[in-house]
Each structure stands twice: as C-alpha cells, then as structure tokens.
Amino acid sequence: MSILGIVFSYSERENLRELTRLRTIASLPMAGKYRIIDFLISNFVNDGIYDIAVIARDNYHSLMDHLGAGMEWDLIRKRGGLRVLTPYAKSESGRDGLYRGSVEALSNNMHSFRRSMGDLVIMAEASILYSIDFNHLAKTHLNSNADITAVYTKQLNGHPTVPMGVAVMHFNENNRLYDLNINKDDMSAQDVCWSIGVFVIKKSLLMSLVADAMAFGKYDFLEDIIKRLSNRLDIQGYEYKGHLLEVSSVAGYMKANMNFLNANFRNRAFHRPIYTKSKDSVPARYCKGCCVKNSIISDGCRIEGTVINSVISRNVFIGKDSIVKNSVIMQNTEIMQGVSLDNVILDKDVIVRENRQLSGHETYPVVVEKASII
Amino acid sequence: MICGQKKEMIAMLLAGGQGSRLGILTQDVAKPAVPFGGKYRIIDFPLSNCTNSGIDTIGVLTQYRPLELNAHIGSGQPWDLDRLYGGVFILPPYMGGKGGEWYSGTANAIYQNMNFIDLYNPQYVLILSGDHVYKMNYDLMLDFHKHKNADCTIAVIKVPWEEASRFGVMNADEDSRIFEFEEKPQEPKSNLASMGVYIFRWKKLKEYLIKDEEDENSDNDFGKNLIPQMLKACEKLYAYEFKGYWKDVGTIASLWEANMDILDPNVPIELDDPPWRIYSRSSNMPPQYIGENAVLSNSSIADGCNVEGKVENSILFPGVTVGKDAVVSNSILMPGVSVSEDALIEYAIVAENARICKSARVGEWKKPEIGKQHREITVIGGSVTIGERAVVPAGTTIDESIIEEVGE
Lengths: 374, 408
Hints:
The complex is a heterodimer of chains A (374) and B (408).
Chain A: E1 3-8, E2 29-30, E3 34-35, H1 36-46, E4 51-55, H2 61-67, E5 81-85, H3 102-108, H4 110-115, E6 120-125, E7 128-130, H5 134-144, E8 148-153, E9 167-171, E10 177-182, E11 193-202, H6 203-215, H7 221-227, E12 235-239, E13 244-246, H8 250-259, H9 263-269, E14 284-286, E15 291-293, E16 295-297, E17 302-303, E18 306-308, E19 311-312, E20 317-318, E21 323-325, E22 328-329, E23 334-335, E24 340-342, E25 344-346, E26 351-352, E27 357-359, E28 366-368
Parallel strand pairs in A: 1-4, 1-6, 4-5, 8-12, 14-17, 15-18, 16-19, 17-20, 18-21, 19-22, 20-23, 21-24, 22-25, 23-26, 24-27, 25-28
Antiparallel strand pairs in A: 2-3, 6-11, 7-13, 8-11, 9-10, 9-11
Helix pairs in contact in A: 3-6
Chain B: E1 9-14, E2 35-36, E3 40-41, H1 44-52, E4 57-61, H2 67-73, E5 87-91, E6 95-96, E7 99-100, H3 106-111, H4 114-120, E8 124-129, E9 132-134, H5 138-147, E10 152-158, E11 168-172, E12 178-183, E13 192-201, H6 202-214, H7 222-232, E14 237-241, E15 246-248, H8 252-263, E16 288-290, E17 295-297, E18 299-301, E19 306-307, E20 310-312, E21 315-316, E22 321-322, E23 327-329, E24 332-333, E25 338-339, E26 344-346, E27 348-350, E28 355-356, E29 361-364, E30 378-380, E31 385-386, E32 391-393, E33 397-398
C-alpha cells in the first residue's frame, strides 16, 4: 500500500500575533535552525513516505522559500516527491480566493491527489510537533478495517489545560468515535482525548466524502465529515503517546522552544534526523569572554556576550556585555553591545542597538516583528 | 551519445594522493577528505573556489582510498555542481581494451583522462590539487593568463625566505615570465612558491602530456617533468602571484596550525564570507546544546555538539560531546568524538568517532611550559578508545585503543 501525505501548512485557529503576520504557521522557526514543518516532513521521509502534498492558503512566501523543490528532505523524486499546492483562484467564484474550510482546500487540490500513486492518505497539520510511526499507524488502520483512523493524545505536555481550538474526540468502548467538539475554553479535565490533526483514510473514500460535502455546502473536515458522519463511518481512535508540542499562542510558542533545552525531550525529538534548508553557514564562534549556559546555538552565530536559557537561530550576532535570557532569537538578528533581553522573541533580521533593554514575562513574551530596528 | 557542451575552462582536481605525512589521519581516507575547519573537508576549498569562480565542470581524480571522498562529493549538489551539462565527475583509473593502469603521476592521471577533457572541448584547463586551504578566484587568474597570452600560468605565493626551500620555487622576470623552476632548492633564488594551481592552454597541455608519456624515464609529474620540459622548449610560462591566505596542510603540525588560524582574527582566512562561501555536505544534525556548566572561550563549535565542560581555543566538528568537568584546549576534535567527564585534552587532534573516557588525559604536558610554539601535537586515531584514567603523553600518536589504565 503506498501512502500519500497531505500536510496542512496553516492553522485556522492560531493566535500567534506578529509571528504569523508575514508567514504561515508551518514556516515558523523552531528549535534554532528549523521551521515547524521540518519535523513533520522529516517524519514522513524517515518512515519512507516520499509522496507529500503541502496545502498552502495564505502568506506562504516564506514556506515556499524554505521548502523550495524539497531537495534537503530528499523529496525531489520522479515517483512522488514534494508538491506545494497554492490556492487556485477561480475567477468565476467571485470570492477572494481563500478556502472556506479544510474540505474546500482538499476539494480544490483533488486533481493533484488523484494523480498521486498513493492509495492511502495520511493527513496531518504542520502546527503540531511530534514524532509518530506512520507505518505502524497505516498498518493499524488497515488491520482494523476502519473507514477513518483518527490520532488522538491524552498528553498535556506540561500544559495545565487542553489547548484552545483543538478537537476533543469521544470514543466508545469499541474505540469508535461517536462525538467531537472543538475546545472553546480552558478545559482542564484529565483523560481527554484530543486530536493531533492526523487522520488516515483511503484516497478513494476521501475523494467521495469531500465531493459529497462540497455538494452540500459543508466546508469543515472536522465538523462536517468526522462529526456529522460519525454514525455512518467507522472512525477508530489511535493513541499517540510520545512527545508533543502544540503551538497556537505566543506563550505556547515560547514554551515549545524552551522544551528543546531539556535533554530528554531533545533526545526524543532528534532520535531520527530532522532535515532543514541548508544555509552553508560557518560553525558557531564563541569569543573570549562569552558566557553561554543551558542554550541552543545554531551555526553561523557569533557570541561575544552572555546567553542563558535561550534558543538562538542561525547567523545571530550577540555583542559584548549583552545579556540574552529566556529568549528566542530568530535568524540574522544582530544584538549589539550592552543589550539586555529577557523573555523576548526577536523575529528575523532584527537589529537591537547598544544598551537597549527589553523584558517580557513568561506568560506574555515581548515579540519584536521581523526586520525591526530597536 | 554523450553530449558535452563546449566550456571555456574546466578543472581537473588531483585528489588521489595519500598524504602519508598525515600518518594515521589518512590511514582510511584520502588527504582531500580529511576534516578541516569545524565542518569542512579539505576538498571543499578547491570545489567551492571553482563554483564561486564560475567553473561548473570538474573532474576529480581519485586513486587512494576514495570511499569517503566519493560519498562526500556524491552528486556534487552541496557545491551546486549537479549540472545538466558538466558538473562534478569522479575519475578513478580504469581498464581499457589494452589493459589499464594506476595513475603513475599527476601528469599521467590527466593523460589517462584526456577523453574526458575533450568531451567538453575547453580552451583552458585548470589543474588543482585537493591538499590546500585557500580562497581564490580562478577567474581572475584566467584573465591574467589570457592577458599574457600564456601557454601555462602557475599560481605562486610569497613564502618566508627560510621556508622557500620546502617548495617548488619559480624564478620569473619583471614581466612575470618564468625562466626557471627549482623543486625544493637548497639556496632559493626567489621566494615565489608554486601553489599547485595551473592553467594550461588545453591544446598545448595535450601535446606535452603525450610527449611526456612517450618518455620512459619520466615520472609523469607536473612539477618534476612537464613544467621543466615546457621551460626547456621556451614555451610561455607565467607566474600569477596570489595575495591571500594559502596553506599546505600536509603535515600534522600544519593541519593543526591551519585549523588554529581560523580562530585567530589576525590571520586572513575568514570563512564567514557570504560572497565567497565554502560549501560542504550538511551533517543534518540538530543545533548544538551548551550546558549549564559549560565554559567556552575562543572556539568554533559545529552542529550536533553537546558541551557541558570547558572548551578553549579549540575546534569541535559536528556531533562532538564534551562531558562535565572535561577540559579541551588548543585541540581539534573531528566529527563524532566523545569526551567523557573530567577528561583532559590539550594540543591534540582527535580523529573521527574516537572516544576519550572518563578522567583520561590526552596530550598532557608534564614539563614546565616553555612556549606554545614548541608544543608537540598529540594525535588520536579514528574510532580509537582511550580508557578511563589512561594517560597519553604529549606528542604521541595513538592508533590502537588503550583500554587499561596506564600508570603514572
């Protein structure tokens, strides 16, 4: 059975403020040198799935720039390979071109899925970071004879509550889904099964379900296919028990990055290679008088000052007598001398001039927009 | 039919040498594949120079232990050398209808691949070696070559007079025309050393390669035979002076020094040079993690490293781990080396995947410090294990694991 991976590169329910103003969530930098989507695409490739379609909706420039033709992920393939599916603006529809929901996104790109040699589809969202055995998932799906397999988790990964906006799923004693609701408030209940956005379905069934839903003007995959048809379709649950990061708010984004400072988490996240776009930067340089504690540093950095509990992306300069604490610094930023940063997220290409001080809080980090000069 | 596209100049990179003076570092790999500069291999320098100079067709002549070199070069994609017409080609010795033979010398290696060069029908051929660390624009050298209407242009660099006798020295007139070439002269008349970089007019080179092959007494070497033959025949040979950093990393001492040059802001080998990047195959490792107790000073650390101890004046290649309370100073740790807790490494080159166990002491200097210049470099071979509390005295070379504790 050959598998087609369909990746949603955007999220309909995130609240990442300035971080996603100029980019789609999938291309959000993560753990220093990566973008969130690297983890999912590497997961597919590591499991031998080389046929991947990425659905883009809006502001996908940085995503396209990052993925290119898929070379770094070994996805320049004659059979399969990587396809980034940008919105197909139909002039007669008279709308602004944005999909009305995930079903329409699937429907408008069906021509590409149809052409794929894969007959089993694994759908996934790029906004959640995990490492799952897709082959085991596919095998379980086939053995269970289910129509759809929905992956859920009970992990909260340090969060006190189930994240806002995720789908909470209810299964009966036969592990069959009978209800679904979107989490709208801070639900703290234990043992809640919430969706990590991964579904397995035969391509032929997906095609007919999507065509059917479109005919009825139903556009949401979760509400209008999974929930509405749960009494007619056999939707089985599959529990994911590994590590997991959910990024839908700025504080969550900060916390997700900080997770990588934990050795156990790092070992699990990187036990198989994670591929990313190569920048051909030089190795990181640590100058005399620098001080680095409990931090992730990427190549191309030049550290003259102090870095504590932070995640530093590629080609970052940190000047003398500067202190960077509890912060996430994205690529190509320049922090001059005597600067002090605490609980700050600096987006790409930012310059922080001499002796500036910025300080946020764990629950509300300061976000400095791309290419700002402070 | 193989269809070559006519190229103005193609490069032939001699990468078949063992580099025997590097000892155990080249036991299993050819010298051009020896790791250098934190994430590179020596061959990345000439390959990147070619790409940055606009040369897109390169034949890499391999002979000695080519496995790692072949894997490193692959399709040539990291250097942008996966091309529709041209690109990088690995050219090992091959069999023909009348038998085949090993490359007997640098000139013979090119002679055996004349068909390859003819495929691209170039006007000029650039001959390079995979043994040197430098950033050079070959296009400027080609301009010089055309301007002088030369048959052969040899890149030269000024070396200190006292070292000139270690090199092939060019004696040239004020117009840069070479009138004499001396290989390792006792009393050098000039301090212009050959860098092993030549541009030939292909027709002329071909003529001399054939002539040289007919000469049974020839060693089929560029420096020893071909260049002197051309001089004898009064061909137009010119010296092109290169002003910049160039280092032959042929010995343990020079390999160590050239690596340390990267850490020295006063040495003009800036690798962080976006218009002239040095490309290499990516290690695909996660970014480095620097621990709570790490102390770092004047060091270059690559992806995949995990540092908990103290690292000063050192170069850590991808995937190196340094445990708590371990001290690494003035050393080069090649990819995948692990240094356990409380170990000490000083003035050493530790080859790929070696393991330095807890409290081992490598390169420890017992005598009072006389001056850094005279410290001998300790070398630990690839995949060697230095056991707990073992002591490796300064200046020794270890190519077999030491498991037992060695007494004081």
